[in-house]
Amino acid sequence: MRTAVCVATFQRPDGLGTLLRSLIDQRRMDEQFLIVVVDNDPAGSAKEVVEEFVSERVAIRYEVEPEPGIPAARNRSIAIARREGVAYVAFIDDDEFASPYWLSTMVSRVETTGASAISGPVEPIFPSTHPKWVRTTRLYHRATFPDGASLEFASTANSLLRLEAIAGIQEPFDLSLQFTGGSDTFLYRSLRQRGGSIIWEPAGLIYESVPESRLSLKWILTRSYRHGVTLGLSDRRLDPSYRRLITRAVRGVVQLPIGLLVAGASLVRRNDDWRCGLSRIARGAGVLVGLSGRSFDEYRRT
């Protein structure tokens, strides 16, 4: 097997089941691939879900990582993939599911381009009862790029990594980011710094199930703020040149008045875009906080 699909999961049995079914039903894969499930629940609550699929035609490895936090779970999945001797690892989250040709598309692109990593789009799927502003503002839609675009970084929400690109790095996901999120941003940005390449593949599509609990302004602002913190903090740690830090700071500061203008114009026009303005403000503030060296523990468990 040349490819492993790595899944970190924590107490999402329904989402994990949907994901595993989408992986087992992948098409146009000329050879067998491996599914690696790392359960970040010390109680091993995902084991029962995984066992429902072990008799299927795809090989599955399941292990528990008791150390809490996404970086620890991701590092365990990398260790398993290395032990199995695969060449590529693909990442997908346990609240997502893959389109039928996702994996074959990603593997084909990394082999034809020789890139270090491939990244693809994530399309949100909303509950039938979602409010209108969820679609009109597009705040839940991630950035997309032209076919073959070179990216500065990628996300483990949808990416494929050539393992040799991180050879010799025992824990590629930074454990100091245990509850902050953003360890994937740090990994891929450091990959670029070492001369690696990240290519955009628009046909490598993944779907993300957005629960009703996330359909709120509070969730949007929290996520925007955390993304800003990640950008600022990664610049401070990975590229602390005077020019880079000043550029990022200016970009962060500019988001504040732009956000106010967008929010103000939205209130005058009586549309939903004021949420977009507040999101810009939260992201800009997060950038400045990250540049100061502080972090934000979005994923801390209580």
What's the layout of helices and strands?
Elements: E1 3-9, H1 13-24, E2 34-39, H2 47-51, E3 59-64, H3 70-84, E4 88-92, E5 96-98, H4 102-113, E6 117-119, E7 122-125, H5 133-136, E8 158-162, H6 183-193, E9 198-200, E10 206-209, H7 217-238, H8 242-269, H9 274-291
Parallel strand pairs: 1-2, 1-4, 2-3, 6-9, 7-10
Antiparallel strand pairs: 4-8, 5-10, 6-8
Keywords for this entry:
single chain, 3-stranded mixed beta sheet, globular, alpha/beta, 15% strand
Description:
- The chain has 302 residues and is an alpha/beta fold.
- Helix content is 42%, strand content 15%.
- The chain is built from 9 helices and 10 strands.
- It has helices at 13-24, 47-51, 70-84, 102-113, 133-136, 183-193, 217-238, 242-269, 274-291; strands at residues 3-9, 34-39, 59-64, 88-92, 96-98, 117-119, 122-125, 158-162, 198-200, 206-209.
- Helix 7 (217-238) packs antiparallel against helix 8, helix 7 packs parallel to helix 9 and helix 8 (242-269) packs antiparallel against helix 9.
Concise structural overview:
This protein is α/β, with parallel strands linked by helices and 302 residues long. 42% of the residues lie in helices and 15% in strands. It has a 7-stranded mixed β-sheet, with helices on both faces. A 3-stranded mixed β-sheet has the order 5-10-7.
